[in-house]
Design brief:
The protein is of the alpha+beta class and 77 residues long. Helix content is 38%, strand content 13%. It is built from 3 helices and 4 strands. It has a two-stranded antiparallel sheet. It has a two-stranded parallel ribbon with strand order 3-4. The mean pLDDT is 76.
Length: 77
């Protein structure tokens, strides 16, 4: 885990290979300069996912927001 201002989208962080970057904040809260760097990283074929997308696709876990939406649907929230 690294703060947004430290991430520079290289193929390694502290000497360890990075397979995928996971952004664990709301999209609306991502600073504009970081968004530009993410776009450049995507152009260079780096994998970038949101936290919920990572849970759903990689770990095959139901994202927390989906679970809360289902609870609200049945009236438990």
């Amino acid at each position: 885990m690294e703060p947004i201002d430290v991430v520079n989208f290289q193929s390694s962080i502290r000497g360890k290979y990075v397979e995928q970057y996971v952004v664990a904040t709301e999209v609306e809260r991502i600073p504009e300069d970081f968004s530009r760097r993410m776009l450049s990283a995507l152009f260079h074929m780096h994998k970038i996912s949101t936290y919920e997308n990572f849970l759903a696709r990689t770990l095959r876990i139901e994202p927390p927001s989906q679970f809360i939406d289902e609870l609200a649907y049945v009236g438990w929230v």
